[in-house]
Design a protein that fits this description.
Layout (H helix, E strand, L loop, with lengths): L2 E5 L2 E3 L5 E8 L8 E6 L6 E6 L6 E3 L7 E6 L4 E6 L8 E7 L5 E2 L3 E5 L2
Parallel strand pairs: 2-11
Antiparallel strand pairs: 1-3, 3-8, 4-5, 4-9, 5-6, 7-8, 9-10, 9-11
C-alpha cells in the first residue's frame, strides 16, 4: 500500500521557521523525483520545490527561492522541506508527491503563518 505521510506543519509567526517531513512507503522512494506543493484557500495548487531521485537536481518556485530548502534521505525514505523566514503568504496546506503518472500524493499538512 502506497503511503506518503507529511508532518511538521503548525502555527508559526512571520519570520519563523518550520521543517516539514514526508515519509514514504509502499513504493521505491529512491526511484522517483519528489515534490512539495502547496494550496492556499481559494487558490490553485502550486509547486514549491522539486528534487531529483539522487538529490542532485533541485528546483524551487519563485516565491520561495532563498527561503526554503528541499532535501531527501533515500535511506530513510523521507523527503524534507526546511522553511525559513516564513511569510503570511506561505500559509497553505503543504503536500508531498512522487512525480509519476499518476502521481502519488500525501494527505497534506497545514502551515499557518500569523502573528
Amino acid at each position: 500500500q502506497v503511503q506518503l505521510v507529511e508532518s511538521g506543519g503548525g502555527l508559526v509567526q512571520p519570520g519563523g521557521s518550520l521543517r516539514l517531513s514526508c515519509v514514504a512507503s509502499g513504493f521505491t522512494f529512491s526511484f522517483y523525483t519528489m515534490t512539495w506543493h502547496r494550496q492556499a484557500p481559494g487558490k490553485e495548487r502550486e509547486l514549491v520545490a522539486r528534487i531529483g531521485s539522487a538529490g542532485v537536481f533541485i528546483e524551487y518556485g519563485d516565491s520561495v527561492k532563498g527561503r526554503f530548502t528541499i532535501s531527501r534521505d533515500n535511506a530513510k525514505n523521507t523527503l524534507y522541506l526546511q522553511m525559513n523566514n516564513l511569510k503570511s503568504e506561505d500559509t497553505a496546506v503543504y503536500y508531498c508527491s512522487a512525480q509519476r503518472v499518476p502521481p502519488y500524493w500525501g494527505q497534506g499538512t497545514q502551515v499557518t503563518v500569523s502573528s
